[in-house]
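Please produce the structure of this protein holding zinc ion.
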Amino acid sequence: MPAPNPLNPPLAEGIRRLGFRKWYERELLSSHAHMALAVLAAVALLASFEAFDGASREEKMLNTVFVVVSAAVTLWSLQRYTYLLMHAEELANQANCPRCQAYGQLRLSERPARTESTDGNAQRLVPVCCKRCGFEWDLDDG
Ligand SMILES: [Zn+2]
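Below is the modeled complex.
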């Protein structure tokens, strides 16, 4: 799993600073920006392949560098796109209050955050509280 981007605050900090809905919206915008970058880098990759025709030796060397760089950017941005999208969706699926079913109406709870380990997989549990009815539960942040 890739590390969180410094531009995307971790869940607890994002809820505290922005609220859950804004945090979720920013995660989706960020993931789709990475998708757009992946498309542009893929076009650059294809254009670099096109430029091989009739190129001199030095130009072919330079084109090889362009191919490697644009392929790396394409793969990295696709990985970020899927990570950010799946992470946001995973948390959105837990954002309904179990008691009153209010969606995204949550704030950080006063309870301390916990890390639970089951089968060797560490789970970061972010304690939240429903703004409407006060019910408390944990969001599993991977
Ligand atoms: Zn509630």
